[in-house]
Amino acid sequence: MADPEIDDALDEVLDDSLWSLGVYDAHCHPTDTMDVVPEIPKRKVRTLTIMATKAEDQELVAQVAREYPDRIVPSFGWHPWFSHRLWDDMKAGATGVTISKEEHYRSVLTNEPTEAFIEALPEPKPLSQFITETRNYLEEFPSALVGEVGLDRTFRLPNPASLIGPDDKKLSPHKVQMDHQRRVLEEQLRLAGEMERPASVHGVSAHGVLFDTFSYLFKGHEKVVRSKRTQKRGPHDFEGDEDSDEDTGPKPFPPRICLHSFSAPPDFIKTWLNPRIPAKIYFSFSKAINVGYGYERFAEMLGLVPEDRLLVESDLHIASIDMERHLAGIIHRISRERLWDPSKTVETTGRNWINFVYGETASKALGL
Asked: Region Disordered: what ranges (predicted)?
């Protein structure tokens, strides 16, 4: 059900004074529409954080980042929608084991795919090979993220065009097994930890499993939280203070995590903000997902997000004028809900984006 007041707000635009403050798109996919990529220099947004999702677009993201280094922060990752196309040769016991294309797809897809369906799918790529390639991209681009990665319980694979008749549906009954999605996600998160890079994370209808996946990697690295009793003591009376900035090296998880177009029930925000979590969690919102479909609970969610953990994104697949409209729409909606002047929303989310991508220490050192 549409809300006319909200729809009107989404048609608002940002004037040039607000764009000049620096609007940062925390998550988008312009390489999905490469013929419009040359328009990137015309866009008023200061920086686009562009996501790779599958085999075909890893190098496209790299190419665009090389062409527009002042406007692009690249992100390299494998989206859960395509996770079936990776063969997990990194799991325990997989070393030296070979598996056929048919065996692989029957093991990772639900509802027993037919031989014709499997035949239409590409040969699976070894997960280890993808991780190596991603590491190489991260080494080439020192500011690059890992993403888009995550879990999705609702996505169904499309039927191959060759199998769709006049009475057939476009979507097949097949989903990717959650255990396989988790393995693909876990290895990418470990790489992000190894390279000390932030990650942009997708989560749809799998919010509990997503949190459990991170919790598994957080285990043994949780922060020590001071009790109310010890907080009454002097600042030097407690070892292992949660605010310690001591660098203890790479962890098996990203140092900073963006939960993009966050759509979980609001209580999950409280879960992700548990002070024992050893990574910094950011919440990004978009017009397309959070306002277009979830506006009933958006105000409630927004009220739970700390000011310094808030990001904005377009989540758009095209670097057109629509990208600016989407960003303007979510900026105005946040401003209205939080009773902020739009300039504060732009400045706050811009500062948060810089800290998310570079880390607060590096941001200060760079003078950002």
From this structure: 227-256
